[in-house]
Amino acid sequence: MSDKFIALRREPRTERAQRERAETEETRAALAARAPREEMPERLTDLGLVPVDVCEEAPEVRHNFQKLPYLDAYVVETPDERLERQAKEVLDNDYVIVPNFELSMPTPSAGRSYARKPQVAGAWPDVSGIKQARAMGLTGEGVTVCMLDTGVDADHLELRRKVIDFRYIPLNTAAGRVRDCRGFDVDGHGTHVAGIIAGENIGVAPGVELMVAAVLESETLKTSLERVVVALDWLLSQFRFEENLGKAVIVNMSLGFSKTTLSRKEYADAVTGLRSVIDTLVTDFDVLPITAVGNEGKGKVRAPAYFPYTISVGAVDYALGVAGFSGSGTSPITGEAEPNLMGYGVDVTSSYERDRYNRSHYRALSGTSMATPYVTGIAALYAAADPSLQGQALRDRLMQTALPLDGAAAGRAGNGLARFVKEAPS
Amino acid sequence: MKSNGTGPRRANMRDFVVEVERPASAELAAYSRAERYRRLRANTEAHRTQLETWLETEDLCSEVAGMRAGTGFNLIFVECTPNVAAKLVRAPGVVDVLPAGELEAGLQSVI
Q1: pLDDT, tens digit, 9 for 90 and up, residues A323-349
Q2: Inter-chain touch B73–A104, beta carbons under 8 Å
Q3: So where are chain B's domains?
């Protein structure tokens, strides 16, 4: 949680008529300067807070406040809880106190970018078993994969020959409509994930039927339980159609929910709601959720990866070394070690956004959300080879056939690298 | 009470998710996925209707901005005051009422 809070004036210190005239006659700052003198700065100073200029980039004092003259507001920063409480008491009469929730933006990708497909893209190592699967004619055909992500660029070279069932789920499902349209991507991330799963030239399982739900707002990358529920309800509604009744269905969730902006209770409540949804998917519909364990490194795992019945995925490089960023830990629900399996998640080259000249770009990205679609693709190959493998049975097959990573530190690599193995285990 | 919440958000209204009772998975096991979805959705919609009636009976509609349509999950999203949310816990068929705010999905790409 941030050490800062913001105090916004409850009632302006000037008359409304005066403010309206100020739009054309003078600046608001000048008007505020003529407003009744406020004693607030002195009162905050008396507490031990140091006034700093809004232009200062990094105040050197730990306990400080900034006056925002145009907004007639204050930003107060102090790591001292007692001082924070006192400052709030001083301000509370005339100001509304607003917490400064921190929003973490995604790390900008600096991976290599290509304007055409590089040779490395789609060159899955032999140990993955993907070549074996191809030799058997397996591409994931007959299996449905549903992605919850930023969307998908359906016109990328790798994806444009597929008919991708796409829905944009609005932030406010009450005011906006669920859009059934050509797939688009607000970020590029979803296109990258889709390419790993089903890219025509680079995907693990290019024959799968792809459903993509865009549930994340661009830039803010926020979503809500409601958007996730609406997206997954759309998935379930596909079972109304006879041709879908018996299909293996895998949900790829290359995203994890962070508690950085939520209180402990808020996070717990959100997890409770999501878990109820995942339980229904698994128990009543035999869907297999495959989720990213997170990029916070050892000792940290995210929801929904640590839920029971999901497969949580960590990342290895092409030398089968566990990536330092790959999360691991114990599920607070089951007490079991996470992740369950590993996938290639370092410098994975896949489809990205098209540019203004309509060139289909590729980019190398690293993360457990690159490893997750790799495992999803492997799962789809197994389900294509044996349509009776669904839900938890499919999960068991993946866990049993994984390549153990004996060199990995304890608790960091689960059962090992997910791979396709031709013969069923005895 | 607007059922789709298309009006402007009023002050003190919050988003909540109401978990309602549902058929046990064992009861649904004998049916196809299509029938399970149909039954689960019908169950949620029936609870939704029941909640609307209950809110009217309790004279709480003025504190409810909207209630979303039912889905195949036993969760009903409601925009209402915290006062209504606290009372909804006692409504028939309700298992729990939780805040349903925004979640931040930290995407997993790193350098």
Answers
A1: 999 999 999 999 999 999 999 999 999
A2: no
A3: 14-99
